[in-house]
Write a sequence for this structure.
């Protein structure tokens, strides 16, 4: 998934059960703005409201919300660049595996 970097809502709460105050704290919003944002996320199908056994209101991502949280604003890279980066990584793996000073090796 590719996300527009100018978008106003970023996925920050992947696979997380959270309360409204977390949104306020992380994004620096007051309670009213936090509640408005959460309602927009509910209306657009990104999160669902739930109540825990103690009656506390919490929110959890939907599948659509998890997809948003995994979105990246980074531009796609070419196959040539990806192959170059992979080869650089594998060279570092070979260096680590060939050095007896390291306690571990990479499989």
């Amino acid at each position: 998934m590719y996300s527009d970097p100018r978008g106003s809502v970023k996925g920050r709460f992947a696979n997380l059960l959270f309360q409204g105050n977390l949104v306020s704290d992380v994004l620096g919003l007051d309670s009213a703005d936090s509640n408005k944002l959460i309602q927009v996320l509910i209306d657009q199908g990104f999160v669902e409201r739930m109540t825990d056994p103690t009656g506390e209101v919490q929110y959890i991502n939907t599948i659509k919300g998890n997809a948003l949280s995994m979105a990246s604003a980074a531009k796609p890279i070419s196959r040539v660049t990806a192959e170059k980066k992979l080869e650089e990584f594998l060279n570092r793996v070979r260096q680590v595996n060939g050095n007896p000073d390291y306690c571990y090796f990479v499989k």
